[in-house]
Amino acid sequence: MSSHLIQPMTGLEKAILEIIDSAVAICDTEGDWVFLNHAADALMNYPSLLRQLPVEEILTSRKRQEIELRLERELGETEVWNARAIPVFSPDGQVQAALFVLSNSAEKTLDESNFQRLLEEQALVDPLTRLPNRTAFEKKINQIIADARLQHTQHVLAYLDLDQFKIVNDTVGHTAGDELLCEVAQRFTALMQPGEILARLGGDEFGVCLSNCSMDEAKQRLQRWIDALSHLHFQYENRRFRIGVSMGLVAVDADSASYPDLLSAADTACYAAKDKGRNRMEVYVAGNQEYERRKLDLDWAVRLCDSVDENHFELLLQRSLHRQGVQPYCEVLLRLRLADGRLEMPGAFIPAAERYRLMPQLDRWVVRETFRRLCEIEDDGTCYAINLSAQSISDEEFLHFVSLQLEESGIRAERICFELTETAAVQNLLQAEQFVKKIRALGCRFALDDFGSGFASFAHLKALQVDFVKIDGSYVREIFNSEIDRAVVESICKMARLMGKSIVAEAVETELLLAETERMGIDYLQGYAIHRPEDWPMVSA
Protein backbone atom coordinates (compact mmCIF):
# COMPACT_ATOMS: atom_id res chain seq x y z
CA MET A 1 0.00 0.00 0.00
CA SER A 2 1.43 3.36 -1.04
CA SER A 3 1.76 6.25 1.41
CA HIS A 4 3.01 9.11 -0.74
CA LEU A 5 0.12 11.48 -1.00
CA ILE A 6 -2.26 12.93 1.46
CA GLN A 7 -2.06 15.24 4.47
CA PRO A 8 -1.09 13.01 7.44
CA MET A 9 -3.94 12.05 9.74
CA THR A 10 -3.67 12.58 13.48
CA GLY A 11 -3.30 9.59 15.77
CA LEU A 12 -6.82 10.25 17.06
CA GLU A 13 -8.32 10.18 13.56
CA LYS A 14 -6.55 6.93 12.73
CA ALA A 15 -7.67 5.37 16.03
CA ILE A 16 -11.31 6.25 15.33
CA LEU A 17 -11.19 4.87 11.79
CA GLU A 18 -9.71 1.62 13.12
CA ILE A 19 -12.35 0.98 15.78
CA ILE A 20 -15.46 1.59 13.68
CA ASP A 21 -17.22 -1.38 12.05
CA SER A 22 -17.53 0.15 8.58
CA ALA A 23 -14.78 -0.34 6.03
CA VAL A 24 -12.86 2.90 5.42
CA ALA A 25 -10.52 3.20 2.42
CA ILE A 26 -8.64 6.21 1.06
CA CYS A 27 -7.32 6.35 -2.51
CA ASP A 28 -4.88 9.03 -3.70
CA THR A 29 -4.74 10.79 -7.05
CA GLU A 30 -2.29 8.17 -8.36
CA GLY A 31 -4.83 5.41 -7.80
CA ASP A 32 -3.04 3.91 -4.78
CA TRP A 33 -4.87 2.88 -1.61
CA VAL A 34 -3.03 4.92 1.01
CA PHE A 35 -5.16 3.95 4.00
CA LEU A 36 -7.29 0.92 4.84
CA ASN A 37 -8.68 0.27 8.28
CA HIS A 38 -9.02 -3.29 9.54
CA ALA A 39 -12.48 -3.71 8.06
CA ALA A 40 -11.39 -2.40 4.64
CA ASP A 41 -8.25 -4.49 4.56
CA ALA A 42 -10.37 -7.62 4.22
CA LEU A 43 -12.02 -6.18 1.13
CA MET A 44 -8.71 -6.25 -0.74
CA ASN A 45 -9.51 -9.93 -1.30
CA TYR A 46 -12.47 -8.82 -3.45
CA PRO A 47 -11.00 -6.66 -6.24
CA SER A 48 -14.27 -6.82 -8.17
CA LEU A 49 -15.94 -4.84 -5.37
CA LEU A 50 -13.21 -2.20 -5.20
CA ARG A 51 -13.19 -1.77 -8.99
CA GLN A 52 -16.80 -0.57 -8.78
CA LEU A 53 -15.74 2.44 -6.69
CA PRO A 54 -15.78 5.60 -8.89
CA VAL A 55 -12.40 6.92 -7.79
CA GLU A 56 -11.69 9.07 -10.84
CA GLU A 57 -15.21 10.50 -10.88
CA ILE A 58 -14.97 11.60 -7.25
CA LEU A 59 -11.55 13.17 -7.84
CA THR A 60 -12.73 15.18 -10.83
CA SER A 61 -16.32 16.03 -9.82
CA ARG A 62 -15.32 17.11 -6.28
CA LYS A 63 -18.80 15.97 -5.10
CA ARG A 64 -19.98 13.38 -2.61
CA GLN A 65 -21.90 10.34 -3.83
CA GLU A 66 -24.01 7.51 -2.45
CA ILE A 67 -23.24 4.27 -4.30
CA GLU A 68 -24.69 0.76 -4.26
CA LEU A 69 -22.25 -2.03 -5.01
CA ARG A 70 -22.81 -5.73 -5.66
CA LEU A 71 -20.38 -8.42 -4.66
CA GLU A 72 -20.75 -11.86 -6.28
CA ARG A 73 -19.85 -14.55 -3.73
CA GLU A 74 -19.50 -18.30 -3.96
CA LEU A 75 -22.49 -20.49 -4.88
CA GLY A 76 -24.07 -17.64 -6.80
CA GLU A 77 -24.75 -15.54 -3.69
CA THR A 78 -24.84 -11.74 -4.08
CA GLU A 79 -24.07 -9.22 -1.36
CA VAL A 80 -25.26 -5.65 -1.60
CA TRP A 81 -22.91 -2.99 -0.23
CA ASN A 82 -23.58 0.67 0.39
CA ALA A 83 -20.74 3.16 -0.10
CA ARG A 84 -20.37 6.85 0.66
CA ALA A 85 -17.74 8.51 -1.54
CA ILE A 86 -16.23 11.75 -0.20
CA PRO A 87 -13.54 13.91 -1.87
CA VAL A 88 -10.69 14.92 0.47
CA PHE A 89 -9.36 18.44 0.01
CA SER A 90 -5.89 19.81 0.78
CA PRO A 91 -5.50 23.13 2.71
CA ASP A 92 -5.20 24.99 -0.62
CA GLY A 93 -8.49 23.59 -1.91
CA GLN A 94 -7.13 20.89 -4.23
CA VAL A 95 -8.63 17.38 -4.23
CA GLN A 96 -5.91 15.13 -2.84
CA ALA A 97 -7.78 11.86 -2.26
CA ALA A 98 -11.10 10.04 -2.33
CA LEU A 99 -12.46 8.55 0.90
CA PHE A 100 -14.90 5.63 0.81
CA VAL A 101 -16.99 4.31 3.69
CA LEU A 102 -18.44 0.89 2.84
CA SER A 103 -20.85 -1.29 4.74
CA ASN A 104 -22.87 -4.38 3.99
CA SER A 105 -26.51 -3.49 3.48
CA ALA A 106 -27.31 -5.70 6.45
CA GLU A 107 -25.12 -3.47 8.63
CA LYS A 108 -25.66 0.10 9.75
CA THR A 109 -23.69 2.57 7.66
CA LEU A 110 -21.50 5.02 9.58
CA ASP A 111 -23.09 8.37 8.88
CA GLU A 112 -21.62 11.79 9.62
CA SER A 113 -23.54 12.21 12.88
CA ASN A 114 -22.23 8.90 14.22
CA PHE A 115 -18.72 9.74 13.07
CA GLN A 116 -18.91 13.15 14.81
CA ARG A 117 -20.19 11.47 17.96
CA LEU A 118 -17.23 9.07 17.91
CA LEU A 119 -14.86 11.99 17.45
CA GLU A 120 -16.33 13.80 20.43
CA GLU A 121 -16.19 10.70 22.61
CA GLN A 122 -12.59 9.95 21.66
CA ALA A 123 -11.58 13.56 22.37
CA LEU A 124 -12.40 12.91 26.04
CA VAL A 125 -10.45 9.65 26.30
CA ASP A 126 -6.75 9.14 27.01
CA PRO A 127 -5.57 7.02 24.04
CA LEU A 128 -3.06 5.03 26.11
CA THR A 129 -4.96 4.01 29.24
CA ARG A 130 -8.49 4.50 27.84
CA LEU A 131 -9.32 6.48 30.98
CA PRO A 132 -11.05 9.86 30.80
CA ASN A 133 -8.48 12.54 29.95
CA ARG A 134 -7.79 15.96 31.50
CA THR A 135 -10.56 17.65 29.50
CA ALA A 136 -13.16 15.09 30.57
CA PHE A 137 -12.01 15.34 34.20
CA GLU A 138 -12.29 19.13 34.20
CA LYS A 139 -15.84 18.94 32.80
CA LYS A 140 -16.89 16.47 35.46
CA ILE A 141 -15.30 18.41 38.32
CA ASN A 142 -16.99 21.61 37.18
CA GLN A 143 -20.33 19.77 37.37
CA ILE A 144 -19.47 18.54 40.86
CA ILE A 145 -18.46 22.05 41.99
CA ALA A 146 -21.82 23.38 40.74
CA ASP A 147 -23.63 20.58 42.60
CA ALA A 148 -21.69 21.28 45.79
CA ARG A 149 -22.68 24.96 45.69
CA LEU A 150 -26.31 24.26 44.86
CA GLN A 151 -26.95 21.21 47.05
CA HIS A 152 -24.31 21.86 49.75
CA THR A 153 -22.82 18.42 49.14
CA GLN A 154 -19.24 17.43 49.95
CA HIS A 155 -16.76 15.67 47.69
CA VAL A 156 -13.00 15.08 47.57
CA LEU A 157 -10.60 15.69 44.68
CA ALA A 158 -7.23 13.92 44.69
CA TYR A 159 -4.12 14.52 42.59
CA LEU A 160 -1.96 11.40 42.13
CA ASP A 161 1.67 11.32 40.98
CA LEU A 162 3.57 8.06 40.58
CA ASP A 163 6.80 7.66 42.55
CA GLN A 164 9.93 6.45 40.75
CA PHE A 165 8.20 6.43 37.35
CA LYS A 166 11.06 8.36 35.74
CA ILE A 167 13.46 5.56 36.69
CA VAL A 168 11.47 3.13 34.54
CA ASN A 169 11.45 5.50 31.53
CA ASP A 170 15.16 6.29 31.87
CA THR A 171 16.23 2.68 32.46
CA VAL A 172 14.18 0.60 30.02
CA GLY A 173 12.50 3.19 27.82
CA HIS A 174 9.14 4.83 27.19
CA THR A 175 7.51 1.66 25.86
CA ALA A 176 7.99 0.13 29.29
CA GLY A 177 6.70 3.32 30.87
CA ASP A 178 3.55 3.11 28.76
CA GLU A 179 2.99 -0.50 29.82
CA LEU A 180 3.41 0.50 33.45
CA LEU A 181 0.87 3.33 33.11
CA CYS A 182 -1.67 0.92 31.63
CA GLU A 183 -1.09 -1.56 34.45
CA VAL A 184 -1.45 1.16 37.07
CA ALA A 185 -4.66 2.37 35.43
CA GLN A 186 -6.06 -1.17 35.53
CA ARG A 187 -5.19 -1.58 39.21
CA PHE A 188 -6.77 1.72 40.13
CA THR A 189 -9.88 0.93 38.07
CA ALA A 190 -10.30 -2.39 39.86
CA LEU A 191 -10.37 -0.56 43.21
CA MET A 192 -12.95 2.05 42.21
CA GLN A 193 -16.29 2.23 43.97
CA PRO A 194 -19.55 3.79 42.75
CA GLY A 195 -19.30 7.55 42.63
CA GLU A 196 -15.56 7.63 41.95
CA ILE A 197 -14.03 9.18 38.84
CA LEU A 198 -10.52 8.35 37.66
CA ALA A 199 -8.72 10.22 34.86
CA ARG A 200 -5.24 10.42 33.44
CA LEU A 201 -4.16 14.06 33.54
CA GLY A 202 -0.91 13.54 31.61
CA GLY A 203 2.47 11.88 32.07
CA ASP A 204 2.37 9.83 35.26
CA GLU A 205 -0.30 12.02 36.86
CA PHE A 206 -3.88 10.96 37.59
CA GLY A 207 -6.93 12.74 38.97
CA VAL A 208 -9.56 11.15 41.20
CA CYS A 209 -12.84 12.51 42.47
CA LEU A 210 -14.89 10.79 45.19
CA SER A 211 -18.47 12.06 45.07
CA ASN A 212 -20.56 12.58 48.20
CA CYS A 213 -17.69 11.58 50.41
CA SER A 214 -16.16 12.99 53.60
CA MET A 215 -12.43 13.60 53.84
CA ASP A 216 -11.99 10.84 56.43
CA GLU A 217 -13.79 8.35 54.22
CA ALA A 218 -11.77 9.44 51.18
CA LYS A 219 -8.51 8.92 53.06
CA GLN A 220 -9.54 5.39 54.02
CA ARG A 221 -10.59 4.49 50.50
CA LEU A 222 -7.53 5.99 48.80
CA GLN A 223 -5.16 4.36 51.28
CA ARG A 224 -6.20 1.08 49.64
CA TRP A 225 -4.93 2.51 46.33
CA ILE A 226 -1.57 3.38 47.89
CA ASP A 227 -1.29 -0.07 49.47
CA ALA A 228 -2.17 -1.82 46.21
CA LEU A 229 0.50 0.03 44.28
CA SER A 230 3.14 -0.47 46.95
CA HIS A 231 2.85 -4.22 46.27
CA LEU A 232 3.28 -3.79 42.51
CA HIS A 233 6.56 -5.20 41.23
CA PHE A 234 6.67 -4.10 37.61
CA GLN A 235 8.86 -6.35 35.46
CA TYR A 236 10.22 -5.51 32.02
CA GLU A 237 13.08 -7.26 30.17
CA ASN A 238 14.26 -9.07 33.30
CA ARG A 239 14.28 -5.83 35.29
CA ARG A 240 11.99 -5.35 38.29
CA PHE A 241 10.84 -1.99 39.61
CA ARG A 242 9.05 -0.90 42.78
CA ILE A 243 6.42 1.75 42.17
CA GLY A 244 4.54 3.94 44.60
CA VAL A 245 2.11 6.84 44.43
CA SER A 246 1.89 10.16 46.25
CA MET A 247 -1.49 11.84 46.67
CA GLY A 248 -2.73 15.32 47.46
CA LEU A 249 -6.35 15.66 48.61
CA VAL A 250 -8.58 18.72 48.74
CA ALA A 251 -12.23 19.09 49.81
CA VAL A 252 -14.85 20.15 47.27
CA ASP A 253 -17.78 21.87 48.95
CA ALA A 254 -20.05 24.90 48.71
CA ASP A 255 -17.13 27.22 49.51
CA SER A 256 -14.71 25.74 46.96
CA ALA A 257 -13.04 27.91 44.36
CA SER A 258 -12.69 27.10 40.66
CA TYR A 259 -11.38 23.86 39.18
CA PRO A 260 -7.89 25.28 38.45
CA ASP A 261 -7.59 26.44 42.07
CA LEU A 262 -8.71 23.05 43.41
CA LEU A 263 -6.30 21.17 41.15
CA SER A 264 -3.47 23.51 42.15
CA ALA A 265 -4.23 22.95 45.83
CA ALA A 266 -4.28 19.16 45.38
CA ASP A 267 -1.03 19.35 43.39
CA THR A 268 0.56 21.37 46.19
CA ALA A 269 -0.46 18.77 48.77
CA CYS A 270 0.86 16.00 46.50
CA TYR A 271 4.30 17.63 46.38
CA ALA A 272 4.22 17.88 50.17
CA ALA A 273 3.54 14.13 50.29
CA LYS A 274 6.56 13.49 48.07
CA ASP A 275 8.79 15.67 50.24
CA LYS A 276 7.67 13.82 53.37
CA GLY A 277 8.70 10.41 52.09
CA ARG A 278 6.54 9.52 49.08
CA ASN A 279 3.98 6.72 48.84
CA ARG A 280 1.65 8.64 51.13
CA MET A 281 -1.11 11.26 51.05
CA GLU A 282 -1.44 14.81 52.33
CA VAL A 283 -4.59 16.88 52.73
CA TYR A 284 -4.52 20.50 51.62
CA VAL A 285 -5.47 22.93 54.38
CA ALA A 286 -6.00 26.55 53.42
CA GLY A 287 -3.79 28.92 55.37
CA ASN A 288 -1.10 26.34 56.08
CA GLN A 289 2.16 28.26 55.61
CA GLU A 290 3.98 25.33 54.03
CA TYR A 291 1.20 24.75 51.52
CA GLU A 292 0.86 28.44 50.76
CA ARG A 293 4.59 28.60 50.04
CA ARG A 294 4.34 25.60 47.76
CA LYS A 295 1.32 27.10 46.00
CA LEU A 296 3.29 30.33 45.54
CA ASP A 297 6.17 28.29 44.08
CA LEU A 298 3.76 26.62 41.68
CA ASP A 299 2.42 30.02 40.61
CA TRP A 300 5.99 31.20 40.09
CA ALA A 301 6.77 28.09 38.03
CA VAL A 302 3.92 28.87 35.62
CA ARG A 303 4.97 32.52 35.38
CA LEU A 304 8.59 31.59 34.77
CA CYS A 305 7.71 29.31 31.86
CA ASP A 306 5.73 32.14 30.29
CA SER A 307 8.51 34.63 31.03
CA VAL A 308 11.11 32.51 29.23
CA ASP A 309 8.85 32.18 26.19
CA GLU A 310 7.98 35.87 26.15
CA ASN A 311 11.43 37.28 27.10
CA HIS A 312 10.30 39.02 30.27
CA PHE A 313 13.73 38.65 31.87
CA GLU A 314 16.35 41.37 32.02
CA LEU A 315 20.13 41.18 32.27
CA LEU A 316 22.08 43.63 34.41
CA LEU A 317 25.84 43.94 34.77
CA GLN A 318 27.98 44.55 37.84
CA ARG A 319 31.65 45.26 37.29
CA SER A 320 34.44 44.53 39.72
CA LEU A 321 37.38 46.67 40.75
CA HIS A 322 40.51 44.83 39.65
CA ARG A 323 44.12 45.26 40.59
CA GLN A 324 46.74 46.18 38.05
CA GLY A 325 47.63 43.51 35.52
CA VAL A 326 44.57 41.27 35.74
CA GLN A 327 41.73 40.86 33.24
CA PRO A 328 38.62 43.02 33.90
CA TYR A 329 35.79 40.97 35.42
CA CYS A 330 32.05 41.66 35.19
CA GLU A 331 29.11 39.59 36.49
CA VAL A 332 25.89 39.07 34.53
CA LEU A 333 22.84 39.32 36.81
CA LEU A 334 19.32 38.07 36.10
CA ARG A 335 16.13 39.98 36.94
CA LEU A 336 12.46 39.41 36.08
CA ARG A 337 10.45 42.27 34.65
CA LEU A 338 6.99 42.30 36.29
CA ALA A 339 3.79 43.52 34.69
CA ASP A 340 4.01 46.84 36.56
CA GLY A 341 7.54 47.42 35.26
CA ARG A 342 9.39 46.60 38.48
CA LEU A 343 12.39 44.28 38.44
CA GLU A 344 12.07 41.21 40.68
CA MET A 345 15.22 39.90 42.38
CA PRO A 346 16.20 36.24 41.82
CA GLY A 347 15.61 35.35 45.46
CA ALA A 348 11.87 35.60 44.81
CA PHE A 349 11.69 33.11 41.93
CA ILE A 350 14.83 30.94 41.98
CA PRO A 351 13.51 28.62 44.76
CA ALA A 352 10.46 27.85 42.61
CA ALA A 353 12.64 27.34 39.53
CA GLU A 354 14.80 24.89 41.47
CA ARG A 355 11.82 23.02 42.95
CA TYR A 356 10.21 22.55 39.53
CA ARG A 357 13.53 21.95 37.76
CA LEU A 358 13.25 25.02 35.55
CA MET A 359 16.80 26.25 36.17
CA PRO A 360 18.24 24.72 32.97
CA GLN A 361 15.67 26.74 30.98
CA LEU A 362 16.62 29.93 32.79
CA ASP A 363 20.35 29.24 32.46
CA ARG A 364 19.96 28.62 28.73
CA TRP A 365 18.11 31.92 28.33
CA VAL A 366 20.88 33.80 30.16
CA VAL A 367 23.65 32.15 28.11
CA ARG A 368 21.90 32.74 24.79
CA GLU A 369 21.04 36.36 25.61
CA THR A 370 24.52 37.15 27.00
CA PHE A 371 26.23 35.76 23.91
CA ARG A 372 23.85 37.71 21.67
CA ARG A 373 24.62 40.96 23.45
CA LEU A 374 28.34 40.35 23.50
CA CYS A 375 28.21 40.18 19.71
CA GLU A 376 26.93 43.75 19.72
CA ILE A 377 29.64 45.36 21.85
CA GLU A 378 33.36 45.79 21.44
CA ASP A 379 35.65 43.06 22.74
CA ASP A 380 37.73 45.02 25.25
CA GLY A 381 39.11 41.97 27.05
CA THR A 382 36.54 41.95 29.87
CA CYS A 383 35.54 38.54 31.24
CA TYR A 384 31.76 38.18 31.69
CA ALA A 385 30.64 35.81 34.47
CA ILE A 386 27.40 33.83 34.14
CA ASN A 387 25.92 31.99 37.12
CA LEU A 388 24.91 28.37 36.61
CA SER A 389 22.71 26.05 38.68
CA ALA A 390 23.48 22.54 39.88
CA GLN A 391 20.64 21.34 37.63
CA SER A 392 22.41 22.63 34.52
CA ILE A 393 25.71 20.92 35.23
CA SER A 394 23.70 17.71 35.69
CA ASP A 395 22.04 18.22 32.31
CA GLU A 396 23.94 16.20 29.71
CA GLU A 397 22.73 18.47 26.89
CA PHE A 398 23.78 21.75 28.52
CA LEU A 399 27.47 21.50 27.62
CA HIS A 400 26.55 20.83 24.00
CA PHE A 401 24.25 23.85 24.12
CA VAL A 402 27.08 26.11 25.33
CA SER A 403 29.43 24.79 22.66
CA LEU A 404 26.83 25.41 19.95
CA GLN A 405 26.15 28.93 21.22
CA LEU A 406 29.88 29.73 21.16
CA GLU A 407 30.14 28.46 17.61
CA GLU A 408 27.07 30.30 16.35
CA SER A 409 27.87 33.60 18.08
CA GLY A 410 31.55 33.62 17.12
CA ILE A 411 32.60 35.28 20.39
CA ARG A 412 35.89 34.34 22.03
CA ALA A 413 35.42 31.69 24.71
CA GLU A 414 37.91 33.58 26.91
CA ARG A 415 35.30 36.31 27.34
CA ILE A 416 33.07 33.92 29.29
CA CYS A 417 33.40 32.70 32.86
CA PHE A 418 30.80 30.38 34.36
CA GLU A 419 30.14 30.58 38.10
CA LEU A 420 28.88 27.76 40.30
CA THR A 421 28.35 28.02 44.05
CA GLU A 422 30.45 25.78 46.23
CA THR A 423 27.27 24.31 47.73
CA ALA A 424 25.98 23.37 44.27
CA ALA A 425 29.33 21.84 43.34
CA VAL A 426 29.37 19.73 46.50
CA GLN A 427 25.97 18.21 45.64
CA ASN A 428 27.77 16.14 43.04
CA LEU A 429 31.47 16.78 43.23
CA LEU A 430 32.46 14.23 40.59
CA GLN A 431 29.95 15.64 38.12
CA ALA A 432 31.13 19.17 38.88
CA GLU A 433 34.76 18.16 38.28
CA GLN A 434 33.91 16.71 34.87
CA PHE A 435 31.82 19.74 33.92
CA VAL A 436 34.54 22.23 34.88
CA LYS A 437 37.11 20.23 32.94
CA LYS A 438 34.97 20.17 29.79
CA ILE A 439 33.90 23.81 29.98
CA ARG A 440 37.54 24.90 30.34
CA ALA A 441 38.43 22.70 27.36
CA LEU A 442 36.07 24.90 25.31
CA GLY A 443 38.21 27.88 26.34
CA CYS A 444 35.84 29.36 28.94
CA ARG A 445 36.86 30.22 32.50
CA PHE A 446 35.27 28.93 35.68
CA ALA A 447 34.67 30.45 39.11
CA LEU A 448 33.74 28.79 42.40
CA ASP A 449 31.18 31.16 43.95
CA ASP A 450 30.37 31.67 47.67
CA PHE A 451 33.59 29.87 48.54
CA GLY A 452 33.94 29.01 52.23
CA SER A 453 30.28 28.20 52.75
CA GLY A 454 30.77 24.46 52.27
CA PHE A 455 32.33 21.82 54.48
CA ALA A 456 36.00 21.07 53.80
CA SER A 457 36.20 23.96 51.33
CA PHE A 458 39.93 23.65 50.65
CA ALA A 459 39.45 20.03 49.60
CA HIS A 460 36.86 21.22 47.07
CA LEU A 461 39.23 23.89 45.79
CA LYS A 462 41.90 21.26 45.25
CA ALA A 463 39.51 18.95 43.39
CA LEU A 464 38.02 21.58 41.07
CA GLN A 465 40.23 23.13 38.39
CA VAL A 466 38.66 26.58 38.62
CA ASP A 467 40.17 29.88 37.52
CA PHE A 468 38.50 32.17 40.08
CA VAL A 469 37.62 31.80 43.76
CA LYS A 470 34.86 34.10 45.00
CA ILE A 471 34.95 34.44 48.78
CA ASP A 472 31.53 34.14 50.40
CA GLY A 473 30.27 37.63 51.18
CA SER A 474 29.19 36.67 54.70
CA TYR A 475 32.89 36.41 55.66
CA VAL A 476 33.90 39.61 53.86
CA ARG A 477 31.23 41.70 55.60
CA GLU A 478 32.49 40.66 59.05
CA ILE A 479 36.26 41.04 58.72
CA PHE A 480 36.18 44.05 61.09
CA ASN A 481 33.84 42.41 63.59
CA SER A 482 35.06 38.81 63.77
CA GLU A 483 38.60 37.51 64.03
CA ILE A 484 37.38 34.14 62.81
CA ASP A 485 35.84 35.61 59.63
CA ARG A 486 39.00 37.63 58.97
CA ALA A 487 41.10 34.50 59.44
CA VAL A 488 38.87 32.60 57.00
CA VAL A 489 39.28 35.33 54.35
CA GLU A 490 43.05 35.45 54.82
CA SER A 491 43.30 31.64 54.68
CA ILE A 492 41.29 31.48 51.47
CA CYS A 493 43.49 34.16 49.89
CA LYS A 494 46.67 32.34 50.90
CA MET A 495 45.50 28.96 49.65
CA ALA A 496 44.10 30.36 46.39
CA ARG A 497 47.39 32.13 45.61
CA LEU A 498 49.34 28.93 46.25
CA MET A 499 47.10 27.16 43.74
CA GLY A 500 47.36 29.95 41.18
CA LYS A 501 43.69 30.99 41.39
CA SER A 502 42.42 34.55 41.03
CA ILE A 503 40.53 35.82 44.07
CA VAL A 504 37.24 37.76 44.14
CA ALA A 505 35.85 39.34 47.31
CA GLU A 506 32.05 39.62 47.27
CA ALA A 507 29.84 42.01 49.26
CA VAL A 508 32.31 44.91 49.40
CA GLU A 509 29.60 47.37 50.37
CA THR A 510 31.38 50.12 52.36
CA GLU A 511 34.38 52.36 51.85
CA LEU A 512 36.08 50.74 54.88
CA LEU A 513 35.70 47.27 53.35
CA LEU A 514 36.93 48.60 50.02
CA ALA A 515 40.10 50.00 51.59
CA GLU A 516 40.75 46.87 53.67
CA THR A 517 40.22 44.34 50.88
CA GLU A 518 42.46 46.42 48.60
CA ARG A 519 45.11 46.36 51.31
CA MET A 520 44.81 42.55 51.47
CA GLY A 521 45.81 42.40 47.77
CA ILE A 522 42.65 40.61 46.59
CA ASP A 523 42.50 40.52 42.79
CA TYR A 524 38.85 41.57 42.31
CA LEU A 525 36.47 43.49 44.56
CA GLN A 526 32.77 43.25 43.91
CA GLY A 527 29.95 45.06 45.71
CA TYR A 528 27.92 48.26 45.98
CA ALA A 529 30.97 50.23 47.16
CA ILE A 530 32.47 49.65 43.70
CA HIS A 531 29.51 49.48 41.33
CA ARG A 532 25.76 49.00 41.52
CA PRO A 533 24.21 46.72 38.87
CA GLU A 534 23.15 48.62 35.78
CA ASP A 535 21.53 48.03 32.42
CA TRP A 536 23.44 46.55 29.51
CA PRO A 537 25.70 47.73 27.95
CA MET A 538 28.19 49.39 30.23
CA VAL A 539 31.66 50.88 29.99
CA SER A 540 34.29 48.53 31.38
CA ALA A 541 36.86 49.82 33.88
TrEMBL record:
PROSITE patterns: EAL (PS50883), GGDEF (PS50887). Residues 153-286 form the GGDEF domain. Residues 297-541 form the EAL domain. SMART domains: EAL, GGDEF. SUPFAM superfamilies: EAL domain-like, Nucleotide cyclase, PYP-like sensor domain (PAS domain). CDD domains: EAL, GGDEF. It comes from the Bacteria. This is Diguanylate cyclase (GGDEF)-like protein. It comes from Alicyclobacillus tolerans.
